[in-house]
Write a structure and sequence with these properties.
Elements (H helix, E strand, L loop, with lengths): L3 H14 L20 H24 L2 H19 L7 H21 L7 H23 L23 H7 L11 E4 L6 H8 L4 E5 L8 E3 L12 E7 L2 H10 L5 H13 L1 E10 L3 H10 L3 E5 L4 E5 L2
Parallel strand pairs: 1-2, 1-4, 2-3, 4-5
Antiparallel strand pairs: 5-7, 6-7
């Protein structure tokens, strides 16, 4: 009997099979280089009826959404591991879920055939990978993806998670004087700094696209977060929000305006006397803030910036 464990194993195995291959690179004949693994082909050929029954049962039991979410989350995580500057909002996530629902429906349709050929399976996966390719172009545009069309092997733009002590030192934050509550924007999938601060008795929270949600960590795209006015005493963002703001500032088709508006929304969410502390700095925007807005003071350090709300 096919199980949820088998399902997750197939997803992981298929990801491993295409590891370090570019989804956007095409061969001379126009085909993508991502393919179905030998194990996936054998599984579909031999157990397609069991898989169909498993999917049908999951719909009856209400766990079908969990299957779709698992596959979608794995894809998003893989995309972001390759390039941290890819951006996916809730609308994009809904589209991706539909892509996987369509894939599962096609797998079920195969079960009605008397014979499943290798060509049938190749067509199934080729269609799915083309759908993922279109999804990336529609969600992020062609500019950020163009290099991935040039070579079959991936190059990666990764985002690392640093130790709490390193982050605090680089941001010039003193635990003895840090004001609460604290929000870490882009806290990382592990939320290391948030956990560290809470262990010290500091009321800290974090948001990140890849973190597992709990009472104080929230899985969100920061552009879709509503930062309530006068809520936070300290907001931190190490190698996260400002990195992406700079990326979109330099990018030809970037979301500069969205980031500028969100930056000001973040500042407005500070209580009077509260601070937004981030690295790296944003000199191109901080100069405008100093010149045109007297409600904030800006202090720059070697590696970071501290903006304080004055009124």
């Amino acid at each position: 009997m096919f199980t949820i464990r088998d399902f997750k194993k197939v997803i992981e195995q298929q990801i491993f099979h295409n590891k370090n291959k570019s989804l956007l690179y095409k061969l001379v004949n126009g085909q993508l280089i991502l393919t179905a693994s030998k194990e996936s082909k054998e599984l579909l050929a031999q157990k397609v009826h069991e898989i169909q029954e498993f999917i049908a049962l999951s719909k009856e039991e209400g766990t079908y959404g969990e299957l779709i979410n698992y596959a979608s989350d794995k894809s998003i995580k893989l995309f972001l591991e390759v390039n941290q500057y890819l951006d996916f909002n809730s609308k994009d996530y809904k589209i991706l879920r539909n892509i996987y629902a369509n894939l599962f429906d096609q797998v079920c349709a195969l079960a009605y055939q008397n014979y499943i050929s290798e060509e049938d399976i190749d067509c199934l996966f080729a269609g799915h990978y083309k759908n993922l390719q279109a999804f990336l172009y529609e969600s992020n545009g062609a500019e950020i993806l163009k290099k991935y069309k040039e070579a079959p092997d991936l190059f990666q733009v990764k985002c690392a998670e640093y130790t709490p002590s390193f982050q605090l030192k680089l941001l010039n934050i003193d635990l003895e004087t840090i004001e609460q509550p604290v929000l870490d924007i882009g806290c990382g999938s592990q939320g290391h700094l948030v956990y560290f601060l809470r262990e010290k008795g500091i009321e800290a929270f974090g948001i990140d696209r890849n973190v597992k949600s709990n009472d104080y960590l929230f899985k969100r795209n920061w552009l879709e977060v509503s930062f309530s006015p006068k809520t936070w005493r300290t907001i931190i963002s190490h190698m996260a929000f400002s990195n992406h703001f700079t990326h979109h500032h330099l990018k030809a088709d970037g979301k500069f305006e969205s980031y500028a508006l969100k930056y000001m929304e973040i500042l407005n969410s500070l209580k009077v006397g509260g601070s937004f502390i981030y690295a790296p700095g944003l000199s191109f925007f901080e100069e405008l803030l100093i010149t045109h807005n007297k409600n904030y003071s800006v202090e720059t350090f070697e590696h970071s910036t501290k903006v304080v709300r004055l009124s």
